[in-house]
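$ ./design --mode recover --in tokens.txt
reading tokens...
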């Protein structure tokens, strides 16, 4: 049985001056869960907000945790049923996904979350494009399916139960777990987490399905034991948080070279803090925006290149530098994982740009689906499963027509959940399971796995 989605029965209020609220409004307009309810952007004082709209609202998204608490304590809000999502740009202790909950208030702190996302996409080529789809209302996103009719199934068996959706996890009374053990038994009270293009398009499979073609399962295992290499072209005060996050994911012996015009403050910080467990940090001062300097940079020694920018809203220096580096790499035939960060409310124009916009698209999803808290928290922290893009030959034989049911089985044998693939640099999530494709070297399978 499909879990009834949250429906909004009153107006949605975006209360504050944040330039990012227009992104939330744009995302909310893409979902049918509002039932044509209005989205109202206001900038009033708290008293005016209550008098004008808040009492009748179903959802309030407001700037500032303290302001949200004051609003909740207003006597006029005593009978309000509104959910409140508060944004916090300055409270460093405000963790993403509501760890600073107070009553009906959930919180989102971009300064905590953005480094998490930046660290993950900076070490896996094309992961950013995957996230751009699943963390928005465009393409495939997460839905919930009450497991009544699947009670007694194992999670592994449920992977073949849907024609147009990919099971990715399980929500129980104890919380949400992505890629749980394959032998986990589904109970009637459990809820499956599905990846699908729309709630209305989720369909159960017929009882008789194509069996996995075990003759095409791969017997290769391309593993990398050596450390990874990262080049930071530039530096800002947020980069230390990115390094801390990278230290959770990178393989031991990984190397980071940071090049920026002035690094004395960073060197002082590195000298007086605990060393990283998996990263070796090197620093070098240099004019990263100078073309002659870029021409002499040994790109071939760095599989991952991050352009962090200045972390100042409105600054486009990272995008300008990205254009230069991108053209240099293309001219030399290099395919490094290149990522630029922009801290402004702009829609990214390529799959190598991580924008602050991504966070507010996620905020829109969490505002509509409080259950997403557990999913996003697990995907963006080193606890539990994350998304990985792995060589196709780790799963199936190359140059052989193979359907997705077989790929699901191959990943299942590795205790992983397959959710898509990348063929000829084209990303396909939740593909038609019966369609056959041939895979070649450099193609990848997209899986949920716990590789820690």
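writing sequence...
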């Amino acid at each position: 049985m499909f879990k009834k989605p949250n429906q909004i029965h009153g107006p949605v209020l975006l209360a504050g001056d944040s330039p990012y609220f227009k992104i939330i409004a744009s995302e909310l307009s893409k979902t049918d869960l509002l039932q044509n309810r209005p989205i109202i952007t206001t900038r009033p004082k708290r008293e005016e907000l209550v008098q004008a709209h808040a009492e009748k609202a179903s959802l309030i998204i407001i700037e500032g945790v303290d302001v949200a608490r004051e609003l909740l304590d207003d006597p006029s809000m005593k009978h309000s049923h509104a959910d409140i999502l508060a944004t916090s740009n300055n409270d460093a202790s405000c963790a993403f996904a509501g760890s600073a909950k107070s009553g009906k208030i959930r919180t989102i702190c971009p300064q905590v979350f953005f480094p998490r996302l930046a660290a993950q996409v900076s070490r896996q080529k094309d992961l950013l494009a995957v996230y751009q789809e699943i963390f928005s209302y465009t393409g495939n996103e997460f839905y919930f399916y009450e497991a009544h009719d699947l009670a007694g199934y194992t999670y592994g068996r449920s992977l073949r139960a849907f024609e147009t959706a990919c099971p990715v996890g399980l929500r129980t009374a104890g919380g949400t777990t992505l890629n749980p053990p394959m032998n986990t038994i589904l109970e009637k009270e459990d809820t499956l987490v599905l990846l699908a293009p729309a709630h209305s398009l989720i369909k159960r499979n017929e009882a008789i399905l194509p069996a996995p073609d075990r003759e095409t399962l791969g017997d290769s295992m391309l593993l990398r034991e050596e450390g990874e290499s990262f080049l930071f072209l530039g530096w800002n005060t947020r980069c230390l948080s990115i390094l801390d996050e990278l230290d959770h994911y990178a393989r031991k012996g990984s190397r980071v070279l940071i090049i920026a015009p002035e690094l004395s403050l960073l060197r002082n910080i590195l000298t007086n803090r605990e060393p990283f467990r998996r990263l070796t940090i090197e620093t070098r001062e240099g004019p990263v925006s100078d073309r002659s300097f870029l021409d002499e940079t040994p790109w071939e020694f760095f599989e991952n290149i991050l352009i962090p920018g200045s972390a100042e809203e409105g600054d486009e220096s990272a995008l300008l530098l990205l254009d230069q580096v991108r053209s240099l790499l293309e001219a030399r035939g290099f395919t490094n994982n290149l990522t630029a960060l922009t801290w402004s409310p702009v829609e990214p124009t390529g799959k190598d740009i991580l924008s602050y916009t991504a966070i507010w698209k996620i905020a829109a999803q969490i505002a509509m689906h409080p259950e997403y808290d557990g999913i996003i928290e697990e995907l963006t922290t080193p606890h539990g499963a994350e998304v990985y893009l792995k060589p196709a030959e780790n799963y199936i034989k190359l140059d052989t027509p193979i359907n997705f049911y077989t790929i699901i089985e191959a990943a299942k044998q590795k205790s992983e959940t397959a959710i898509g693939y990348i063929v000829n640099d084209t990303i396909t999530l939740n593909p038609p399971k019966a369609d056959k494709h041939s895979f070649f070297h450099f193609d990848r399978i997209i899986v949920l796995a716990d590789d820690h």
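exit 0
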